[in-house]
Amino acid sequence: MDNEDGRLSKLPDDVLLNIVERLDITDAARTTILSRRWKQIPAKLSKIIITVGSFEPKHRRRTKLTSNDIARANTAVLEATRSILESRTGSLYTIHLMSMHFYLGDDSIFIGQTVANTIATQKVASVEFVILTEVRTNCYVNDLLSYGKRFMLFFDSCPNAFGCLARLWLENLRLGESDFPKIFGVCKQLELLRLYHCDMGIDSLLEVEHPQLRELVISDSNLERVDLKWVPKLTILKFNEFLSRDDPFCLDYVPQLQTVTISNIGLSWHKMLKLSELLGKTAISNLNLNFRCEKIWVKPEGRKQLLPVFRKLSLVNLFNISEECDLTWTMFILQGAPTLKELCIMVRDHLCEMIKGKRRYMHEFSEEKDKGLEWEPSAPDFKHHNLVELSIYGFQAEDKFVSYTRNVMEAAVNLEAVNLYKNPGCEKCKRRLPSGWTWTEMVLIRDKINKGMSLDVGIRFPS
Questions:
Q1: Cross-referenced PANTHER family, in alphabetical order (predicted)?
Q2: What pTM value is reported for the model?
Q3: What is the residue extent of each domain of the chain?
Q4: Which DSSP symbol is given to 389?
Q5: Order of strands across the sheet with 205-209?
Q6: How confident is the model at residue 436 (pLDDT cuts 50, 70, 90)?
Q7: 55-59 contacts: CB < 8 A, separation 24 or more?
Q8: Are 401 and 392 in contact (CB under 8 A)?
């Protein structure tokens, strides 16, 4: 063992540093006892990532936390932070990322103050806060209100720390109407904001104006709408699960927006969204839509309506289209996006996540998942000149899959590859699914697709 330690200690500093930066913070701290040389390594760390989960007993992670549990976990985070930072006293090395994951509690203030002192005395390029709540899921209204008040007390106590944040992750907060404008006003350097189950009340309106924000993620929100009024540097917008009966967001001034991701379980009362109206005056390059194996909530539109917002679109992912739905309607995207290069479609009924049986009657699910998807091409001889790759996950040797693939191949005159995958499954269900294509299946499918066609397109069957 001594020989192994000796060989490790002879490695160059940059190699040792690379090793330590890959360790959990608790293990990284233990390396300081190996030798005098190892003791100096934490002072050179470019990333300091301290996660509260590293200090929680494993048997506690699946049980309900108490206030004492949270206090102990946050104390451990605080002590680890101070220990690492004390070893850097006088260090000339820049901390490129300082990421703190901790629980919202009375002692959060001490963590915030420690980070603020570090920013004031050392070179810190980027700071991230991931702030967790005692109850992570299925919060009651009283929980949301309590966490909201607690967070604002913490926020008001540490303006210097929040003023330097580049990334902020919040969950389960019901804030006052003036709180979000205050947060945006203080967090002037914020580049990423992730809000999970955060609002100002049911059917509330969130207005966003921020000069530096580049990525906004909103999940499981009770917001009626998010108005992106002035966000000049925003490039990524992700909207996951919304209850709004109208458009979930409004894009005003977002000139650099490139990627939009929307995921939602469509209920019977959800509006069919028109992308030409939802995306406004933007010209995005990447679009990701996840239908969660339920109702399709996008309305097919004509080329004339879509061209202004799809004129720069190069990549489209359509995830979790129910197996009950036809695929012809997706051609409207191809017709409206002349610069599209890659189209990826996933078709499956993911039973591990879907609500099944009698429980479906407790929710307003639509029994017609493809209702309102009628679509006719604007020109029978429509051709697309830029699509080079089509990928279909969950492909089956059924007429609707074969016919759809043939339609795309006939329309996309420069198509180079068609990738056909079986249902990928998840960690729970993939063991029950066929692992890959048999030779017989590949020959049969290829013959069906190519029948009567003389196109030079490679049909591939990746495993």
A1: OJ000223_09.16 PROTEIN
A2: 0.90
A3: 292-463
A4: E
A5: 205-209, 225-230, 249-253
A6: confident
A7: 55/26, 55/80
A8: yes
